Every structure is written in structure tokens, then in C-alpha cells.
Amino acid sequence: MNASAAGFAGEMLSVGLNVVPFVWAASPAAAELEGVVMDWVGRLLGLPQRLLFSGGGGGVLQGSTCEAVVCTLAAARDRALARLGHAAIMKLVVYASDQTHVTFQKGARLVGIPPSNFRVVPTSAASGYGLAADAVRAAVDRDVARGLVPLYLCATVGTTGLGVVDPVRELGEEARRHGMWLHVDAAYAGSAAICPEFQGYLDGAELADSVSMNPHKWFLTNSDCCCLWVASPRALTSALSTDPEYLKNVGTDGTGNPAAIDYKDWQISLSRRFRAIKLWVVLRRYGAVGLRAHIRRHVAAAKWFERTVAADERFEVVAPRKFSLVCFRLRASFAGDADDVNRELLAAVNASGRAFMTHFVVDGKFVIRLAVGGAMAEMQHVMDVWELLQDKAEDVLQRYRL
What we know:
decarboxylase; alpha/beta; signal; 7-stranded mixed sheet; single chain; PyrdxlP-dep_Trfase_small; Aspartate Aminotransferase, domain 1; 4-stranded antiparallel sheet; globular
């Protein structure tokens, strides 16, 4: 459970008030609070000024990363087609790594990019499974030579499977070279950037056209809540805006105030929830100090777990931990198929009812993932999981020993 009492209270307010702030006039307070909250969170993360309302950019609360991805892909598509003509849509290419969340492939299909024009760039242990700029450059150059048009590049800060961080600055420079839209997906790990020691992972964000982070993952906020910042709100609204006659009389504050935002033009649907209030409650309840303590407590527990696993000769850490996600497995090379052994271990732990972990497959290897992220998770809980793992590992290995 990664929500909180404050998030729960904010969710109740959102539901109970039943405000639907799709246009400014529907609830000026909701629209303006969203802009304030988005700049607050952006400054906490150390985002560049160009992505904030105070610097000419702006932010919106989407329901999920999937929605944010579709919106930014649509904005990138329309920006390119305004220059190339609509017939060129079959030439547009989207780039991501084999560690990037699959939602980007889904989003590309939804905005009309042919599946054959989605490039999954391979990563390897040599690069820490991060997306190397050289690999992107090679893929882009091949496509340009074939007459295709590079459109969109995703850099991930904290990949779903391994928690890997892509080199944002290097990828941003590659995107600039061909006029691609650079999106930084920090859905999980972006929350950690409120701590100064983690802000370096967002180095190069000033080169991004958009950045997203999900407070409902690690920021004590109830689902659904996804922060999306864009450097050019006009690019987003040009692709998503609608102007039917029945909304023309309620689309502004009546004074021509340019600060009045119709958030219906920043998202897929017209109607929307009052998400800003629950994020506002969390920020006011915990503050920067409380939220940083929350993140650091989880990271400290994950560090301990990583060290402990690495010290046990039966286990191996598969990828270096960067946040609160530890990826490990039983070596078990002496006792039959290692993947079978690890599958049994994970099943035994989850069947105990005392802990729940998930898996990933990288380089053909079955990997167990421990994510420390619960609102009430403490070091003792992680230590208890380690004791459970040791007991279950011994039981599983006993059956495989010759």
C-alpha cells in the first residue's frame, strides 16, 4: 500500500466535492490550484524553469503514464506533420529501449504510428541496461538513410523491470540533432528527485520536451495521479484542443485572462477529476522534509537488502540498485536449472502470505524484484523478508541438491 492517510483524505475531497474542472469556468479554484501544485512539484524535483508555468511551460495532472504518453506522442506527431504534411505519418519513427515500458508501443499505435516504425533499441549489461546514445544514433542514422523521419525518443529514469536510469543529457542531445521530441519517463523514480542527492539523474531535463512522474507510485498519493510537464503547452493543446459551440461561452474567465487554463485541451478526455486537491493535501501534510524522509527511509532499507543479498554466496544482485528496487536471484548453478529454482523461490515466498514480490526477465534470466515503497514499510519489514527468503531458499535448494 503506497498511499497515505493524507492521500486518502484528498481522494475523499476529490470524490465528495465532485468538481469536474474541464474548463476554467467550471471551477476556477480547481484549475488554478492544479497550476500551482504542478509548479510546486516541479520545483521540488529540480526541473528546469522552461517546464514550469512560471517559465513558459506548464503542467497537467493526467490519470496515468499511458495517457501522458499518448498526449505527448500526439503533440510530437502534429508538430512534425505541420511541417511535412499529413501523408508523411507513415514515415514517422519512435525510439525507446528494450527496458522502456510497453505503454510507449501502445501509445504509438494509438496515434497512428505504424508498428513497423517503432524501434526497440537493445541494451546490455555493459551499459547497465541503460539506453546508450550511440545505439540510438546508429538506429536513427539507418532510418534517415531510408528516408524515414525520427519523431520521438523516450528516456527513462527508473525503468519498470530493473530501475535503470537512461543518460538523459546524451539522449537529449541526440534528439536535438534530428528535431525529435524527447520525453523523460520518470513515473516511478522521479519522486526520488525531491532529494538533492537524486536530482543528478534528471541532468539534461532542460533538453526535454516533456517529463512525467507518477505521485501514486512513490509519493504517498492515491491513484490515479500522473504529473506531466511540457516545455510548449501550445504544442500539446494544438493536438488535443476542441472548441464546440456549447463551450465557447464558458471557456475563459470572461476577462481574456491568459492565465485561465482549460484543462480539457491538455488531455484525451473532456471531463476530468479534481486530482490537484489530493496532491495538494499530501504536499501540505508532509512538506518537503516529510516526503524526503519517506523516500530516504525506503532507499536505506533497499541499500541494506542489496548489501545483504550480495554477501550471501547463494545469491547474486543482477543490476546495481539506484533507488528502492533490488533485482536479485539465486545462483543455483550447482542445482539444476537456475530459472526453475528462482521461479519456485518466488512462488514459495508469495504463497507464504508474509511478503509479495514480482519478477522480470533480463538476458534470458528470471530475476526476482524487491521494491520497498509501502507507506508504512520500515527496515524491520525488509529484514523480515530477508529471513523469509533464506528459509524458503534453503527449502527449494534442498530439493535440487544432488
